[in-house]
């Protein structure tokens, strides 16, 4: 296959050969022996919103048992509070929600937006968000600043315009988007777009840049946010002495120097086992409990009591007007009520994370071994530059291949997040053609996790099935690289 002079030519050639790539990919399941009865019923992530993983037996049993009992919902929320305080301490509190995005929405609206009551026009508020992956979640609740980012979310999601991501923007709120030192924001993909390449992020230089932006926007600042993921591909590969991301600790210190809250979006993370706010200094951490933790569909907000009071009030959970310690009533965000079954599942999941974390860490260890073994077999021309990292925070293994692009040479094709929404990310749609439900695989980063047909009903890894998925991924990368002129 001919080599290409420019990146866009390579991606144009890939687009033209998608049918050929799929045709080759469809032969792979037979070649590696994937049983016909599991095709289309397993995948490389148990943490994808569109196809949640099956629930473990202990989660199902707790939900079934509790659903037959008469239990006030405020009592269940208080039980979640007790578990969180057992681990993090009495100064921490919690609010469950229907989804993680609901958790982000109520948190930002409670802490970042200006008040709506009173005569006269509202003032504008701003929060600072590093330019990192998944920015349409933690960074899309305000109007982007500076103006060059105004179109950054235009094609993300299934619906465009006012009813798409633009519709999330909150009252008189701006997002100050800050590029990170050492990151690269190159254009890649069939849907050609800037992608955040973050393995080179320098936390010391980055916090200086963030501090400069904070000083410029100080009169308007109401908070800071970032992701809570702990791997090199997300820009958090440099750790402090406790093993927590150094950049995250720096952002917390900067936020506190302005007496402002630091909100961490750790959707694909584990409470207690993963990102630790008591060590980084984060004030609020938000989770999707149906992703890595294996709960029923729901979200969770864990934070310091000072900041949790307005959040819990917005959810109607912080006590009745006549004076109680807890309630379960009507408030601004009653529509984000998680419901009884979700609360029961969260309680069981949190108990396991508190008392038996190995239920989730052991399958991660096993998956890491499988991924290492299978990627050791990839064509030697591709192996150099691939970084494989284990992350208990997401019960995941990260495969980052930014480093295959070096010395002016083209490497493994990088697909943008816009490719995912457009259906032109070959590493995702190609897996579907193989009968494997795809994982998050864009921005030069592939995130593999347990749960989606790759674990049994106790949570143990079914190694044979997981290996089928990783083998299929390796073969798809090789096929794609052939058409990209890299092999």
TrEMBL record:
UniProt xrefs under SUPFAM superfamilies: PLP-dependent transferases
Protein name: Aminotransferase class V-fold PLP-dependent enzyme
């Amino acid at each position: 296959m001919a080599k290409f002079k420019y990146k866009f030519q390579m991606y144009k050639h890939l687009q033209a050969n998608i049918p050929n790539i799929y045709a080759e990919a469809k032969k792979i399941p037979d070649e590696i022996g994937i049983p016909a009865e599991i095709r289309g019923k397993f995948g490389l992530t148990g943490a994808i919103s569109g196809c949640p993983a099956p629930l473990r037996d202990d989660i199902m049993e707790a939900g079934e048992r509790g659903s037959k009992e008469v239990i006030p919902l405020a009592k269940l929320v208080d039980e979640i509070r007790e578990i969180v305080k057992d681990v993090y301490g009495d100064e921490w509190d919690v609010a469950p929600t229907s989804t993680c995005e609901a958790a982000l929405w109520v948190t930002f609206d409670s802490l970042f937006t200006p008040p709506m009551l009173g005569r006269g026009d509202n003032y504008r508020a701003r929060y600072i968000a590093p330019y990192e992956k998944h920015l349409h979640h933690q960074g899309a609740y305000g109007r982007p600043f500076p103006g060059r980012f105004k179109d950054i979310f235009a094609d993300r999601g299934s619906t465009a315009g006012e009813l798409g991501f633009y519709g999330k923007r909150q009252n008189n709120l701006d997002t100050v988007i800050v590029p990170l030192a050492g990151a690269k924001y190159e254009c890649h993909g069939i849907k050609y777009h800037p992608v955040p390449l973050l393995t080179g992020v320098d936390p010391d230089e980055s916090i200086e840049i963030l501090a400069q932006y904070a000083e410029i926007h100080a009169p308007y600042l109401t908070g800071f946010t970032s992701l809570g993921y702990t791997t090199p591909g997300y820009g958090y590969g440099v750790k402090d002495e406790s093993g927590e991301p150094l950049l995250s600790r720096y952002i917390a210190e900067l936020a506190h120097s302005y007496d402002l809250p630091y909100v961490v979006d750790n959707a694909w993370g584990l409470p207690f086992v993963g990102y630790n706010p008591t060590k980084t200094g984060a004030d609020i951490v938000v989770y999707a409990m149906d992703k890595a933790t294996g709960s029923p569909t729901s979200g969770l907000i864990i934070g310091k009591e000072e900041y949790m009071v307005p959040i819990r009030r917005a959810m109607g959970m912080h006590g009745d007007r006549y004076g109680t310690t807890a309630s379960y009533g009507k408030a601004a965000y009653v529509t984000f009520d998680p419901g009884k079954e979700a609360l029961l599942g969260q309680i069981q999941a949190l108990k396991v994370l508190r008392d038996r974390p190995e239920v989730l860490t052991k399958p991660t260890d096993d998956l890491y071994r499988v991924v290492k073994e299978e990627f050791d077999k990839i064509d030697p021309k591709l192996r150099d530059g691939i970084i494989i990292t284990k992350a208990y925070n997401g019960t995941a293994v990260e495969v980052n291949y930014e480093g295959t692009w070096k010395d002016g040479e083209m490497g493994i094709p990088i697909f943008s997040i816009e490719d995912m929404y457009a259906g032109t990310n070959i590493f995702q749609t190609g897996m579907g053609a193989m009968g494997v439900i795809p994982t998050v695989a864009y921005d030069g980063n592939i995130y593999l996790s347990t749960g989606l047909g790759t674990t049994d009903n106790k949570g143990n890894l079914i190694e044979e099935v997981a290996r089928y998925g990783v083998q299929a991924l390796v073969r798809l990368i090789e096929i794609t690289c052939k058409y990209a002129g890299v092999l």
